[in-house]
Amino acid sequence: xxxxxxxxxxxxxxxxxASGQFLAGGQSLIPSMKLRLAQPGAIVxxxxxxxxxxxxxxxxxxxxxxxxxxxxxxxxxxxxxxIPALAELAGGIGxxxxxxxxxxxxxxxxxxxxxxxPSAVLGLGATVVTNxxxxxxxxxxxxxxxxxxxxxxxxxxxxFPVPRKAAYIxxxxxxxxxxxxxxxxxxxxxxxxxxVTGAGLSVxxxxxxxxxxxxxxxxxxxxxxxxxxxxxxxxxxxxxxxxAQLISVLTQRAVDQMxxx
Length: 261
Hints:
This protein is α+β, with helices and mostly antiparallel strands. Among the domains are: 50 residues, Uridine Diphospho-n-acetylenolpyruvylglucosamine Reductase, domain 2 (2-Layer Sandwich); 96 residues, Enolase-like, domain 1 (2-Layer Sandwich). Helices cover 35% and strands 25% of the residues. Strands 4-5-10-6-7 form a 5-stranded antiparallel beta sheet. It has a 4-stranded antiparallel beta sheet with strand order 11-12-13-14, sandwiched between helices. A 3-stranded parallel beta sheet has the order 1-3-2, with no helix packed on it. The longest helix is centred in the last third of the chain and has 21 residues. The radius of gyration is 18 Å and the shape is globular. The termini are far apart. This is Carbon monoxide dehydrogenase medium chain.
């Protein structure tokens, strides 16, 4: 490690007055610092800030505070009742240590191309609430490790609309347990949304699958959609062609799961 300043604010006003790299669960930042991939000169620890954690259900919305741990989302009876796919997704992130320390806000701000939470936020059409504004999911994710957040902007909560039905199916990379490909399918009041993680430089919606499933919500309709692999990731774990096949297969499985629920 190397020298850096550290602050431990207790209120949002104190956070606003501080400057530096925000530290949430630390599951991405700390390993990156150890490897010298990140070298912030100042750390602002968010773990003691009042009001940033917790789960609230109001009508047809579930609001999850940015500092809420993955394990708490997975164990929440409110989330399990309102959006069971979201609770299941949280319960499958990483391992027990990651779920005990990692936070939804930290995951979204980091926007790892293979992270699970971005697919739920985009698939459900959620809203990211910051200390300055509200950002629609479709505008939030902008590229690899890149979001709409500006310097000093802090995620306070994520507001999820409750879908009619939803499912998340992930094909895990066995060592990291990140998504080699993950697909989140949701039937919302605005129609079917299909969000894919692990396959591209950032989470994305698949317009072809959405159009097909809005016409006929069946696995056969999803299977008939050609998945273009020209802009998908290709690495030592899987080729772009393999990932394209996974997108199709996992979408079909998600649809079958939703129809049988």
